[in-house]
Automatic annotation (TrEMBL):
Record carries keyword Transferase: yes
A GO MF term: acyltransferase activity, transferring groups other than amino-acyl groups
Protein name: GNAT family N-acetyltransferase
Protein species of origin: Pontibacter qinzhouensis
Annotated Pfam families: Acetyltransf_1 (PF00583)
Database matches in Gene3D superfamilies: 3.40.630.30
Domain N-acetyltransferase: 1-144
Keywords noted in UniProt: Transferase
Length: 153
C-alpha cells in the first residue's frame, strides 16, 4: 500500500535511511533528510505492508509546476530488487502527470542508483563528483513530458 507520509512516520523513516547508510547514503545526509521531512515533504509517500514501512519517496514542484523533482527514494535493504522502488516511482510519475503544466521531471541521485532511473526512461543530464559527500557523486537525470508522451512501465 502506498500512502501519504505523516510526521508520525519520522522515526521509521530515519531508521530506513540508517539501514541504507553508508551503502547508498552518506551519514552527513541524515540531517538533510530531517530538514526535508520537516519543511519540504509536501508530496512524500511511504510504502507500507502489514504495518511496516518498506520504502518511501516523494517529489516537489519547481518553476510554477512545470518541473517536478523526484526526491529521497529509500527502500529497506531486505526489499530492494523486489519491484517496490519501481512501483513507488511509477506511482509518483503518475501523480506528477496529473498536473497538465509539467514538462520536465528531474531526479538527482548517485552513481549507485542512476541505472534504475534510466530503465524508466530518464536520461543522464549531468554528473558532479563528490556532490552529496565524498564518494557520493551527483547523477542528475531528466524525463521530458509532453501532452502526449507516456511513461515506461
Amino acid at each position: 500500500m502506498i500512502r501519504p507520509y505523516t510526521p508520525t512516520d519520522n522515526e521509521f523513516l530515519l531508521e530506513l535511511l540508517r539501514c541504507n547508510t553508508p551503502a547508498f547514503f552518506a551519514p552527513s545526509e541524515e540531517q538533510d533528510f530531517v530538514e526535508y521531512l520537516a519543511h519540504h515533504a509536501q508530496f512524500y509517500f511511504v510504502v507500507e505492508e502489514a504495518g511496516k514501512i518498506l520504502g518511501s519517496g516523494g517529489f516537489n514542484w519547481f518553476d510554477d509546476g512545470r518541473i517536478a523533482r523526484i526526491s529521497w527514494d529509500i527502500i529497506h535493504p531486505d526489499f530492494q530488487g523486489k519491484g517496490i522502488g519501481k512501483e513507488l516511482t511509477l506511482f509518483r510519475l503518475n501523480e506528477i502527470r496529473k498536473n497538465p503544466a509539467v514538462r520536465l521531471i528531474v531526479v538527482r541521485t548517485t552513481q549507485l542508483v542512476f541505472p534504475f532511473y534510466q530503465k524508466l526512461g530518464f536520461s543522464l543530464e549531468k554528473t558532479e563528483k563528490d556532490f552529496w559527500a565524498e564518494g557520493f557523486d551527483l547523477y542528475q537525470l531528466k524525463l521530458e513530458i509532453s501532452a502526449h508522451s507516456g511513461i515506461k512501465q
